[in-house]
Amino acid sequence: MFDAMEKHNKVGFLCHYVFGNGSAQYVFLDVDSDGAASLNPSLGFSLAASAHVCASCNGMLLFSCNINGDNLLSFHVLDISARQSVALPPLPHLTPRIIAHGLAFDGRHYQVVLVFSSSSHGEEEATTSTGSAGGHGGAGIIEMEIFSSETGKWRHHTTMIPLPPYLPKLSAAPLYSNGSIYWELGGYLLVYNIQSAHSELLQLPNHSRTWSWRSMTFGQCLWESKGRIHYCYTDYQGIHTWALMNQQDQNYYSTYYTYDHQRFKWSLAHTVPHHILLSQNSRIFLRLEFSDWKPYYISPYAYSEDSQTLFLRLPGIFAAYNLRTRTLKEVCNYSFPGTNFYCCSFFPVVYNGRQGNAVVMGNITGFGGETEAVVVSLPIADTLLCQLSKAKGS
């Protein structure tokens, strides 16, 4: 049912800003075929109360928020280009704390998947989390609540897969690809197929049963390239990307190498050592005024297959590293002098190039303007808030 959509869509990033009064702004950056980014103010919007970005899929965004202050989450799906949002019906019953969120959209219908675990001791509380849990997972079983726009209803699904002992502490956006949703979950890759409702838990290449400095992961992300799922992470050595092997790959490697192909299903795609990255654009790192480089200063966020560009987040800077040319350039910066600023996060998005009419969707206020092909410099208080004020005054 969920086939891959055409590759005519734009790719970019949603930048989410939360300010001290609880309000939030959502700003879109378009990414061109060369990996350069430009501000797209026509898609941006603001909220009086911040909503958490849970997942993105083919031009749709999943948000969660706690509007009534009763510790119960409500979920909303937004069509980015059409600027239309839909509030999902409440969950049929209270669930334990949500571990992960997922969204799958085929161009007609979408499904929202909430992943949680029912404790065997029955001591879990109702969900109050807007993001992935961190810490001990326990001995529960992975379960899901799944909403279908086709039926308009939630349904419960039990996977019978034991929850990993440690839940993710790092933010890795879920990925919908090849008819399945993928999540990083405590050193494993959780896979849920939308059509068959089949689930499996695959060990990630950096999974370690014992803690050490060498086994620590500082940032991670998932993407699809050439039909294969890729998992990228940073550790003390550098940035590593592994591709999930299909059956043909496994048959080939099993012929020439001895390994447990039932447990390990990954092949190394590329590695970028930290010292190589640091040597590509010294101006970036000099401006950051690092007295001592630490590997946790950098996190991978997304990958552009067309330009073979890996997007990285550094303190105050978003950068692009081209794997083909081995060049590093700054995409945008986000320092906030004199701004009542609380936090900033980036989320990879794909959306249709069509532009819908600017409308007001509940308390979501849009603002117009032409896309600017300029070097993006934030904070938005100096650029977009001014545009927003003019739009409200007109």
Secondary structure: helix percent: under 10%
Largest sheet: 6 strands, antiparallel
Structural class: mainly beta
Mean pLDDT across the residues is 75
> What is the distance, rounded to the nearest whole angstrom, between the alpha carbons of the first and last residues?
44 Å
How many β-strands, per DSSP? 29
The helix tally amounts to: 4
In what range is the share of β-strand residues?
35-45%
Structure overview:
Helix content is 9%, strand content 45%. 36% of the residues are buried. It is globular, with a radius of gyration of 21 Å. With 394 residues, the chain is mostly beta strands. Residues 1-8, 120-136, 354-376 and 379-388 have low confidence and may be disordered. It has four helices and 29 strands. The N and C termini lie far apart (44 Å). The strands form seven sheets. Strands 1, 2, 3, 4, 27 and 28 form a six-stranded antiparallel sheet that branches.
Keywords:
29 strands; six-stranded antiparallel sheet; 394 residues; five-stranded mixed sheet; mainly beta
What's the short version?
The strands form seven sheets. Strands 1, 2, 3, 4, 27 and 28 form a six-stranded antiparallel sheet that branches. Strands 23-24-25-26-29 form a five-stranded mixed sheet, with no helix packed on it.
